[in-house]
Amino acid sequence: MSTDSEIICRSQETPAAFAELYDRHAIAIHRYASRRIGAAADDVMSETFLVAFERRAAFDQSVQDARPWLYGIATTLLKKHRRQEAQAWKGLVAGAAAEKAVVADGPDDRLDAELGIRRLATAIRRMNARDRDALLLYAWGDLDYEGVARAMDVPVGTVRSRLNRARRQLRQASGRGDSATQEVEHGRADSAPQGA
Amino acid sequence: MDELTLLRKVREDVAEPSVTALNVGRAALLDAAAPTMAKPATRHRVLRRAGWTTLAVVVAGGVAAILVFTNVVGLAGWRGSADPAAADTLAQAAAATIATADPVVASGQYLEVSTLAVYASISDTSTYLEHQDGQMYIPADRHDEWVWVRDAETVAKTFGPASEKQAAEDAQQPGAPDIIRAADGAFYNGEPMDWGLTALPRDPRQLLNYIYRTTAGQGTSPDGEALAFIADTLRTGVVPADLRAALYKALAGIPGVSISDRDATLDGRTGVAFGRNEGNGLRQEIIIDPSTGLLIGEREVVLRDGILPGVPAGESMGWTAVTTTVVDAAPAGGTLCGSGMHPVGSAGSGQCSGAGK
Q1: How does B272-293 read in b/e, with b if 16+ C-beta sit within 10 Å?
Q2: Is there a contact between B29 and A109 if contact means CB atoms under 8 Å apart?
């Protein structure tokens, strides 16, 4: 099977070959956009590939995987939908949406999630846009640090500091301090009476 | 549950895009990929090798087959060919085009390839058509400077109020054409322009096998993709007579190709349209003047209402008309990367940066 960079390379000569990249990654890009802004994800998916196609000559051929590049373009396009995104996070804070927002593994887990998610949504809403982008590329785009760096066109060190800051804010917002172990304990204890 | 685990679960079950949304996105991409005229193309060594890989997985006639293909043995021929009337007319066009002398570009002159191109701009609820015209001036000595004049985009056609509204929202300030200038046709700091025409066999059957092989796995069907390859190649406007004739004969070898319009008019010129209906509800057509064998252009026709939002069956979702002439001079001005952009990285890297258009 061709690598992404081979497809992009081929599309220089045979532009329609770029459709192969679409078939490969459109659903993943849609999924990422949909989680961030909901219904307008269709547009972002389509636009991402149009922009990518236009800029394919600038793609770094030494990188085989085009996903960071595509997620980066999608992330830039999402800026136009800032209002929808803010609404979506607000919805999670305010309403019953929080209950449906997570796929939980069990009843305890679900309650833990419901409690946590409102705080998490609040923190993400208030977060600096670049930190939020880095966080969501990492968590939802399923990219590693290097992938996020490529997507955002910044050095890996910058990604590391953005992600550290973002995660620290999430932890603080959940009132759980910096210890991941402790926070789980608290979460479980809180939810136990209601779960019983 | 730590905060990242929790975040990863948020909206984990979002719906996948609808089939319509996926199709619309794909159609928009293919539409943009239908080249006006050759875009800055680069031929990569790795790919040239890959192009000769002899193992291809092809789905033909609904049967998945793994076959070893060469130019001599391939998909061409044994699965039928174009409709007889289409094949006859294409044979005439091939004979005529061989007899029609290609324009000779003397030293100091340029071959001007003028392209009128219309593309669909598609949103969720509406579609409108947009012009992206241009003229490329190719010097007699290909190592000299080429000039590419790209006109500002303008609205070509709208389909009702929603379409008009979208077109008005997207409209850019009407601007001067962008002029790009590069030795060897290495526009946008790319590699020298090479359409790869010399690599194409002149024997129609070998050519068609070559096309099936290099387009394997792309597009909605192998035959549709082969037709699109031929349309893309002809649309460059620089195909010599012998190859043009071979491409017409190769087109006659594609099953499902028929004459779809005997009076197809593009940019004021009338010819015969050869097309093939695809499962995605579109028909790619190639329009040829059979008396001279010259290409008039190509278009993609919508076969059913609703394939593109607001576009009724029978409309074109895009078309290109190409004319090639010899001229004594090319326009002055312009830069390697076009207005507002400058090259970055080494020559041939294909990288430009700046605000740009």
Answers
A1: bbbbbbbebbbbbbbbbbbeeb
A2: no
Phi/psi of residue B4, nearest 5 degrees: -75, -40
By C-alpha distance, the chain A residue nearest B10 is A102
In DSSP notation, B85-127 reads: HHHHHHHHHHHHHHHSPPPP--TT-EEEEEEEEEEEEE-SS-E
Low-confidence ranges of chain B (pLDDT < 50): 36-67, 355-357
Distance CA A119, CA B269 (A): 66
Q: Which residues contact A77 (CB under 8 A, 6 or more apart)?
A: A44, A47, A48, A51
C-beta of residue B226 within 8 angstroms of C-beta of residue B50? no
Q: Report CA dihedral (B68, B206, A13, B241) to the nearest 10 degrees.
A: 180
Please check whether residue B226 touches A, CB under 8 A. no
Please report which helix (H) or strand (E) contains residue B66, including its range: strand B63-68
Of B29, B42, B47, which is closest to A22 when you measure between CB atoms? B29
Which residues in chain B (233-292) have CB-CB distances under 8 A to chain A? Answer: none
A118: left (phi over 0), alpha (psi -120 to 50) or beta: alpha
**Residue B125, φ and ψ in degrees, nearest 5:** -115, -10
| Tokens coding B120 | 């669909």
**pLDDT at residue B19, rounded to an integer:** 85
Assess B130–A contact: CB distance below 8 Å, yes or no: no
* β-sheet bridge partners, residue B99: none
Nearest-Cα distance to chain A for B278, in Å, is 15
Stretch (H or E) spanning B64: strand B63-68
Question: In this complex, which of B2, B16, B124 lies closest to A183 when CB atoms are compared?
Answer: B2
The residues near B167 (Cβ < 8 Å, ≥ 6 apart) are: B121, B128, B130, B155, B158
Which of B1, B13, B350 comes nearest A184 by C-beta?
Answer: B1
Per-residue pLDDT of B318-328, as tens digits, reads: 899 999 999 99
Which residue from B7, B39, B123 is facing A43, i.e. has the nearest CB?
B123
Residue positions counted in chain B: 357
Task: Let me know if A93 is exposed, middle or buried by CB neighbors in 10 A (0-12, 13-18, 19+).
Answer: middle
State phi, psi for B223 to the nearest 5 degrees: -70, -40
Q: Within 10 Å of residue B18's Cβ, how many Cβ atoms? A: 11
Between the alpha carbon of residue A156 and those of residues A68, A69, A152, the distances in Å are: 13, 15, 10
Whether A9 and B352 lie within 8 Å, measured CB to CB: no
Q: Indicate if the pLDDT at residue A176 is higher than 50.
A: yes
Cβ distance B47 to A35 less than 8 Å, yes or no, reads no
Question: Which among A17, A113, A171 has CB closest to B9?
Answer: A113
> Measured between CA atoms, how close is B52 to chain A, in angstroms?
13
Top residue of B5, B8, B9 to mutate, by most chain A CBs within 10 Å, is: B9
Query: pLDDT digit string (tens) for B212-229?
Result: 988 876 667 889 989 989
Strands B154-158 and B127-131: antiparallel
CA distance B6 to A117: 7
pLDDT 10s digits, A179-192: 433 333 333 333 33
